Amino acid sequence: MIQLPKSKLPNVGTTIFSQMTQLANEHQAINLSQGFPDFPADAQLIALADEYMKKGFNQYAPLGGMLPLKERIAEKIENSHQAIYHPETEITITAGGTQAIFTTIATLVKEGDEVIIFEPAYDCYEPTVELFGGKVKRFKMKAPNYEIDWNIVKNLVTEKTKLIILNNPNNPSGKILREEDMQELIKIVKGTSIFILSDEVYENIVFDEKKHLSICKYPELKERSFLIASFGKLFHITGWKIGYCAAPKALTEEFRKVHQFNVFCVNTPLQLALADYMKDDSNYLYLSNFFQEKRDFLREGLRQTSFELLDCEGTYFQALKYDKISDKNDFDFAQELTIQHKVATIPFSSFYQDKMNENVIRLCFAKKTETLEKAIENLAKL
After folding, report:
1. Are 242 and 231 in contact (CB under 8 A)?
2. What is the pLDDT of residues 242-298, one digit of tens each?
3. CA-CA distance, 8 to 131, in Å (whole number)?
4. Count of Cβ atoms closer than 10 Å to residue 265 Cβ
5. What's the rounded Cα separation, in Å, for the pair 117 and 168?
6. 33 lies in the same domain as 128
7. For the chain, what is the largest distance between any 2 Cα atoms, rounded to a whole number of angstroms?
8. Do 25 and 69 share a domain, yes or no?
9. What is the per-residue pLDDT for 11?
10. Which value, to the nearest 10 degrees, does the dihedral of the CA atoms of residues 283, 197, 150, 113 take?
11. Do residues 61 and 187 both lie within one domain?
């Protein structure tokens, strides 16, 4: 019998998202766990994809991506954040945001390098750092405010610190970084060789007239940063798995060295469809209002329950504290909700390395109104 190789990720199993979706399917529960819409993408975008396939654009795209799409991205960034990226040399189309994150970490992190992350954290950061021999150092943001104490973060920095990973707006907490956060970050990295990975896939989903502050708005940060974004969140097409990385030319050159052996290139006709679709910025500028209506609908419906509604400033996730309802840990409570009350959620402990339990769960409200209505009805019975 062949001897299996020693696992490079011995502590990693099936993701919580897959687990809860499977449980939802087994028990015919409403799936508010995984972050994907249950409503269709715009028919115009689908038609554009079909058009480019029929026109014969079905072969490999260039390594960095199709130029028309990169030009639209550069325009979007300049209009939104007043920052300039050269389409040809500073923007790379990726197979989703997660691939861009993986490739950035692969580009930078070597054995013994330290990487600072902020928990609760998206689940791909830490395993990828470990794959390349890096060491993760964590700052825990805690309920109910999930704020950052930059004095503590400063003490995490050593001569081995290679990378700081930000997620803004943050999944799962829904919090956004403020001007004072960005200024504190500038102080920390000034005069160092620390790089920044800024995961901004929810940048266009920010509520209550708040502003998303992109890493690229700040020249002191832009010069050392990899800006990651995703069309899945922008256009309700998570299954297309198309995103991008924007970074200064020298960083992009190194990024593409890894990218070419990771996926090489991304779906050609879909890139061209997206390029055409983005010519009209109203196709994404409506998102904050669109999802705020869904957020407000869910929050209003849940006010009749004993859940504590935590702040949701961005993303399409609502965090709920349930300690007035149950004393079970969040994983057991999420299972109970799925099996007995037919609503699948994600336990917040999954976003902490030590599985810290704060009696908080996450709901996705990127759903049809009737889906949210049924979920509210079920949760109101608790």
Report:
1. yes
2. 999 999 999 999 999 999 999 999 999 999 999 999 999 999 999 999 999 999 999
3. 6
4. 20
5. 12
6. no
7. 62
8. no
9. 84
10. 170
11. yes
Query: CB of 380 within 8 A of CB of 305?
Result: yes
The total of other beta-carbon atoms located within 10 Å of residue 324's CB is 11
Query: Rounded to an integer, what distance in angstroms lies between the CA atom of residue 208 and that of residue 200?
Result: 18
Of the three residues 280, 301, 318, the one that is the final residue of a domain is: 280
Range of the domain at 304: 16-41+285-379
Residue 258 lies in a domain: yes
User: Among the three residues 280, 300, 334, which one is the final residue of a domain in this structure?
Assistant: 280
CB 281 within 8 A of CB 204: no
The pLDDT tens digits for 147-187 are 999 999 999 999 999 999 999 999 999 999 999 999 999 99
Give the up-direction half-sphere exposure of residue 172: CA atoms within 13 A in the CB hemisphere.
32
Peptide bond into 62 cis (omega under 30): no
Is the domain of 229 the same as that of 334?
no
Residue among 291, 181, 186 nearest 235 (CA) = 291
* Token pair recorded at residue 206: 């920010």
Q: Is there a single domain that holds both residue 247 and residue 295? A: no
Helix 97-108 / helix 249-262 crossing angle, nearest 10 deg: 110
CATH assignment of the domain containing 358 = 3.90.1150.10
**Location of structure tokens 């949701």:** 312
Asked, for residue 50, whether it belongs to a domain, the answer is yes
The list of the chain residues with pLDDT below 70 reads none
Q: How far apart are CA 244 and CA 227, in angstroms?
A: 8
Number of domains in the chain: 2
Residue 304 in tokens: 């009749």
> Locate tokens 């004095």: which residue?
151
